[in-house]
Amino acid sequence: MNRLKIERYYPKHPLLRKTIKYFWVQKSSRPLILNHKLLPVNNIDIVLNFSAPTVYKYNGVKTTVPRFSFNGIRNQYCILRQTGPVHSIGISFLPHGLYPLLKIPLSEFEDKTVDLQTAISEFSSKLEIELYPVRKTIETLAILEDCLVEFINPELILDTSLQNLFRMLASGLENNSDLTTFCEQHGIHQKKLERIFNQYVGVSPKRFFRISRFNSMVNQIIDKKYDDFTTLAHERSFYDQSHFIKEFKRFSGSPPSLFVKEKQSIKEMMSIFYKPY
Prior knowledge:
Layout: E1 5-9, H1 14-17, E2 20-27, E3 32-38, E4 45-49, E5 54-58, E6 61-64, E7 68-71, E8 78-84, E9 87-93, H2 99-102, E10 113-115, H3 116-119, H4 121-130, H5 137-151, H6 160-172, H7 176-185, H8 190-200, H9 205-223, H10 229-235, H11 241-252, H12 256-259, H13 264-273
Antiparallel strand pairs: 1-2, 2-9, 3-8, 4-7, 4-9, 5-6, 5-8, 7-10
Helix pairs in contact: 4-5, 6-9, 10-11
């Protein structure tokens, strides 16, 4: 049986460890028919496609994805469709990691599929030259790291204290009043925090928290680390189970009871891409 093989590789350069979670590589030995649900995540991936064209269906609209592209933060799921051989490389950035490369506020790209050539043409053009012909994975990743180091502006990387705020906020915010309290506790003005999030992530701090919480729940469901949905809703600070189901369906398109029955192939992809921040 031919299956899609997905592997993760961690960046080696110290600068990249401050901006990138990992690289992922997906390949198939034979042509496939992919029809996968992609859920919202709290970070952005650049995808370099070396094989069959990919089509996204989002809010009923089909978009043929450019060969080198990224998606701004999405508020709903989309469907990925691809027919033929599969070979692509992804750069999975930390939630605050893409801006030092892009140098454009991420809020401009929310819910959009973006051609990398349009967003950062010089970087995209260099990749087109350096990454062809396609080499062995390790060689390709070494070249990719060199290109990233060349174009990332170290001065735009958030300092450690702000990076820690991102991590804490991903798991500790529940509503608007809590954002005020959070900012007071950590000595940062709320407007400044919102400005940083719009610039570096592309969504508000509260939206970032909600997507982060959803990602964490997806991981628990995939790993079956819960007793029942009532317990999961309570652990994630939802008002009640109805609120939990509504929020889950908003992001995934399915209530949790149906989500657990979706194709195993979808969950295999999620186990790679939806690890918590």
